[in-house]
Amino acid sequence: MGNHAEMINFKQYISESLSSSYPTTKLNDHRENIDYMFYDSIGTQYLVHFTLFHSMESFDVMFTSGPNQTALKTNSSRSPMRVFATVAALIEQIHRRYPSYTIEFSAYEEEPSRVKLYDRLAEKIAKITGGEVRTAFHRDDKKYYVSSAK
User: Fold this and answer.
1) pLDDT reported for residue 140
2) Is the pTM of this model over 0.90?
């Protein structure tokens, strides 16, 4: 009986983590570039950068931990799911402004735990957009393309 209760609590924790996000600050909002920043519960800074490709109706999302890093380290936060929930909330904001745009991002393939988190993020975004997830491999990256329901 104790295991069942623990499992329910863990599932509830995951659900809450994926649906709660950190407060964000918009750094800039230009025609092709939109940037946000936020901090996790242990003070790690994250930057989220959107590059819009209006002619192709798509936008690329890149998020990093710290101003001088190029990849999110999933172990840098006590709650990587909440970090991903924050990124998903920002993607949802941009999607509302550009509802027909395809959303693109990538994960470094040599880090399986990161790829699993990005897989979950892609599924979450697909639920938001009503679209579907396509993936492709390019060098060491797994590319994600999340379409929008049109």
Assistant:
1) 84
2) no
